[in-house]
Amino acid sequence: MKKRVAAILLTAAMTASALAGCSGTGQEKEKQASGTQDTASAGAADSGESQSSGDKSGESKNGSENSGESQDGKEKSGTSDTDDAKSETAEKPFAGQTITWVSQGVGDNAWEGQTKPLIEKFQEETGATVKTEWYSFNDLFEVIEVKVGSGSSDYDVLSVDVPMVAGYADRGYLAPMDEYFTEEEKGQFIDSAVTAGTWDGKFYAPAMNTSSQLLWYNKALLEQAGVEMPESDTENRLTWEQVEKMAKDTLAAVDPDGNNGIAGLMFQQVSRTYQMNPLANSLGGKNIGDDGYGVDGVINDESWVKACTWYQNLYNEGVSLRGITADEVTDTFTAGKVVFMVGGTWTEANCAQKDFKDYGYCPVPAFEGHEDQVGTSTGSWHFGIPANSQNKDLAAYFIKWLSIGEGNDMWLDINHDVPSTKAAVDAILNDDNADGIMKIAAYEAANTAVPRALTPGYTEYDTVITNTWEDIRNGTEVKTALDNAVSQINTAMEKYKK
User: Fold this and answer.
1) Nearest-CA neighbor of 344 among 109, 27, 33, 34?
2) What is the C-alpha to C-alpha distance for residues 114 and 111, in angstroms, rounded to an integer?
3) pLDDT one-digit tens code per residue, 5-37
4) Closest C-alpha to 283, from 299, 267, 294
């Protein structure tokens, strides 16, 4: 199989437009769901079905060769239709083949519209047809469970939300991709992306992009309070203790009695696993045991207790406000009611939409004395091949093109995500003119990113952990809350252990 696929890929690489490059991707936007339409048309795929819609320069070259002269100087009499077909097949080894990609993001302003240029380019270069089905964020999970889980062969490429990789792999939904990605090619991804796409020693899901977080702050409130914001960068971070003090000092000046409803420090995805667990990671804590199941002595150890106690005290002391939900935090920040907020790279766009300009940003802080243990949120969308796909070779080639090839370059240009490849990260870090937000995000993705728990039972794990963070912010004794979480997760994991 490896030799056959390698031969196909080598032929395509030599004759089609360069399908090379190792660029990246990125972002974990808060649950991207555009529209309520269950399925979308495969109209984008129609633009490349015909083999005659291939590369113009390739067609011109073939025509020139066909009308050329033989070695004895006599003009060729022409070539047959069969010869033409053979030539095009050699140039486009996937011509006439079709795959179906199922993903999320319905609508022209979401992935459905954003990926059309990518699909058209791929079809033009390979002669293949890529059909697509688009669903809302939540509906995609149901479709995967119902169709892929029942053994359907309707799909060839899945968009996989990265914490689901282990579960899909463990349940046999995905085919391993080690035979399609060499060790060198896997090494093009940042470490956290490879780790998150791997389960039980097998590589199942290459990354399309990743995500990261920054600390955002309200410059106007700090200035009003006379609080000076120290300079910081990824090599000289603020500490959480510094941020807490600045938040308290600012509140004392601008909202001493709390009547203005200003929060000193908020987390954009309050109580959610993706954003909260890095607090414990930043004190050396892990998200789950190395076996992918155990949590006793992990999520209730000293690092977790210390991180959760610090977090709870923010609420007990009025630095953070309990009445604001995760869905409301961003709007509260852009309304000028939050001094500091931990949030994603997309926060800049949120501010622009609300015409909020009094903000600044810097890297996520470290805990004092743990500056070398910073852990940051990471992960986004990966690709998978359903185990029952009938065209794994073409599916793998498409995925490779989108994850470490030309398609990934195009995706970054269109969607401005955080890269998941080392080359793309390095390009940003070495570009003096690169966006400052993206520079921080790229650094974190490559150096401080901690993947979420790698476990087949992530759905249950996430539910318990989210509820635990919520209980802690609402006053439940920290060690009790964490021990209860251990008990619940242990029970939930029993059905996954083999």
Assistant:
1) 27
2) 5
3) 343 333 333 323 322 223 333 333 433 333 222
4) 299
